[in-house]
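We modelled the chain as a single entity of 284 amino acids. Its sequence is:
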Amino acid sequence: MSSQPPIGEIHSAVHSAPGVPVIKSVNWEGLRTLYIKEVRRFFKVQLQTVWAPAITTLLFLIVFTIATGAKSPVPVDGQIVAFADFIAPGLIIAQGMMGPAFANASFSLLVGKMQGTIVDYLQPPLSTGELLGALVGGAVTRAVIVGVVVWAAMALYPGVHVTPHAPLAIVWFGLLGAVFLALLGVLTSIWADKFDHAAAVTNFVIAPLSLLSGTFYSVDKLAPAFRAFSHANPFFYIISGFRYGFLGIADSPVMIGGIVILVIDVVLATLCYRLLKSGWKLKN
């Protein structure tokens, strides 16, 4: 007698009924695979994706502390802080982490649309949440790697003190800031049709908000109108909270800033989820 089951039993074991999902919980294997793909993608060109932004960030530190002669202390929350110590945390989070996070997340879906390989993201058995999680996870990983490299280099730089004061604040604002820019990157890659569109968001949205967020100055010195603009800038709360993790002082209430960024991240994640689920500008 044959040891093989009847053909009908094989069919029922391999194929589920129409409309019934085969993977009924989180597809961890698929999520891990796409995440690894995103990480390997930027590691293949790590000279451009990791070391280039790290070196650029260090050049900002050198230019503003040596070349321009800007060494006068900065008053923050009633205390005087050395200029190099003041700008170092802002450079780590703004230039070293949030910029790479946006660049990584804004590339994946966009290049897929332009090269006709977007089906590689949409066809696998991944839910919308799993797809979004893998894209954001890869971008945050790149941000953390660049941030750690920059921090290590600044720790060895003479005259700069980047010893953690409140590690929880560093982790909280570092991760929330990276997720914030990663979600903006995903949103940009969904909307953009070519690299010029993504570059426009970088040049006219990300760069101005980053430079006008109090990275190189204390907002307490600004005129009331510009101070109000700074307080409406989410980058300001990220940088101020991240700086608190190193210096123990901040330009804004740390708890309020942490809640504000968390709410913004939730709103952006919901928006990205709905756009990915609808297939807007992806399934055309």
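As a brief sanity check on the tokenised model: The mean pLDDT is 88. The longest helix spans residues 83-115.
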